[in-house]
């Protein structure tokens, strides 16, 4: 029977094979089907492999006496960098064709839409080895219905990995929609932690700015602002898309599921507003740093101008007296040199007084 075969598949452990470690390494931690992890919620979470998941999906599609319990559902998380993952999904699931079109199209813009009884979502998240670079973001593709949740990524991501760890540690999940809500909450936690770290960095830059030390702050502020702008461009459409979806949810989604998703979306919006405020703060600091740099540049130009003005009488008089023509005044005078020096000093004093008087007026 299907039930017994499914139980055997869940309990059976695949024996070790030669070269198995090298295969896992080549597929970045996923199995031969590209599956990173799988859990069967019936109602508690039980780890499941690709073979057992295929048997469960076959029983679910057959809709006979071996059909799993109505309150059970399956979560499969794939490494889409492995080409076997898409082939396995096409062979063993009846996911909407729009999901495969999205995967093949490589679209990274945030979107959440409903296709008949299925939800499709393309969300962006921080990579697992995030290093505060604008390029350290990647895409997570999601497809879910009442009985199946499929997530896939090409690069390791933080939020979905935190979700995997929480499910592994026994976090209760009520339904497939509740799993999506928990993913959003983990995304909120990741972004909130990022916002706190960036706030600390901005505080440090601000303290250095107030103490008059300008070294390297412009580059640091520019990098943080670029990161915040990229994150806002990628993440801001997500709450709006979810709110639009929740206005007309699928029939299988309960009122509790809708409320959980709405609460998670509101928390997500709050974090995004904090990031927008942080970006405005970085922008103001950049303007303050630019004003200080312009002030220092103005002071340097003023000093250069004063030196040029003070040296101008010397250059003019030296040029006139050095023409070696007849009629040079005081050429035969016993104190001619001292007289010329006095005239030069007088002109320099007048020019310096005029220059510093203009500075004091400013």
From TrEMBL:
Q: What is one term from the GO cellular component aspect held by the record?
A: plasma membrane
List where the protein spans the membrane: 301-322, 334-356
The subcellular location is: Cell membrane
Region Disordered: start-end pairs? 1-23
Source organism superkingdom: Bacteria
Q: How does it sit in the membrane?
A: Multi-pass membrane protein
Tell me the GO molecular function terms.
Answer: cobalt ion binding; cobalt ion transmembrane transporter activity; magnesium ion binding; magnesium ion transmembrane transporter activity
Query: Entry's InterPro entries?
Result: CorA_cytoplasmic_dom, CorA_TM1_TM2, MgTranspt_CorA/ZnTranspt_ZntB
Entry keywords, A to Z:
Cell inner membrane, Cell membrane, Ion transport, Membrane, Transmembrane, Transmembrane helix, Transport, Zinc
Residue stretches of biased makeup (Polar residues):
1-10
Where does the UniProt entry say this protein principally localizes? membrane
What CDD domains does the annotation carry? ZntB-like (cd12824)
What protein family is recorded? Belongs to the CorA metal ion transporter (MIT) (TC 1.A.35) family.
Query: Can you name this protein?
Result: Mg2 transporter protein CorA family protein
Question: Could you read off the lineage of the organism from its UniProt record?
Answer: Bacteria, Pseudomonadati, Pseudomonadota, Betaproteobacteria, Burkholderiales
């Amino acid at each position: 029977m299907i039930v017994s075969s499914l139980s055997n598949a869940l309990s059976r452990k695949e024996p070790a094979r030669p070269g198995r470690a090298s295969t896992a390494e080549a597929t970045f931690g996923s199995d031969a089907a590209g599956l990173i992890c799988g859990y069967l919620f019936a109602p508690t979470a039980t780890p499941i492999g690709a073979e057992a998941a295929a048997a469960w999906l076959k029983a679910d599609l057959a809709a006979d006496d071996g059909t799993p319990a109505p309150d059970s559902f399956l979560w499969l998380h794939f490494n889409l960098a492995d080409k076997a993952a898409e082939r396995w999904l096409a062979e063993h699931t009846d996911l909407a064709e729009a999901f495969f079109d999205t995967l093949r199209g490589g679209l990274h813009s945030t979107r959440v839409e409903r296709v008949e009884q299925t939800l499709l979502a393309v969300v962006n998240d921080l990579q697992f080895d995030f290093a505060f670079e604008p390029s350290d973001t990647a895409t997570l593709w999601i497809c879910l219905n009442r009985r199946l949740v499929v997530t896939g990524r090409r690069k390791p991501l933080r939020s979905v990995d935190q979700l995997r760890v929480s499910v592994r540690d026994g976090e209760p999940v009520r339904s497939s929609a509740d799993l999506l809500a928990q993913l959003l909450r983990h995304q909120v936690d990741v972004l909130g932690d990022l916002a706190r770290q960036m706030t600390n960095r901005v505080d440090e830059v601000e303290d250095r700015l107030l103490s008059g030390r300008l070294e390297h702050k412009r580059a640091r502020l520019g990098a943080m602002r670029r990161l915040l702008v990229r994150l806002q461009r990628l993440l801001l459409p997500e709450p709006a898309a979810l709110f639009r979806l929740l206005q007309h949810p699928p029939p299988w989604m309960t009122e509790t599921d809708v409320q959980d998703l709405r609460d998670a979306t509101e928390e997500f919006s709050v974090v995004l507003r904090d990031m927008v405020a942080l970006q405005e703060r970085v922008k103001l600091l950049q303007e303050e740093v630019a004003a200080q740099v312009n002030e220092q540049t103005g002071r340097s130009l003023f000093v250069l101008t004063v030196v040029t003005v003070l040296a101008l009488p010397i250059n003019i008089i030296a040029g006139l007296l050095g023409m070696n023509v007849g009629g040079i005044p005081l050429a035969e005078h016993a104190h001619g040199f001292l007289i010329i020096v006095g005239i030069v000093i007088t002109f320099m004093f007048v020019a310096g007084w005029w220059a510093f008087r203009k500075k004091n007026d400013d």
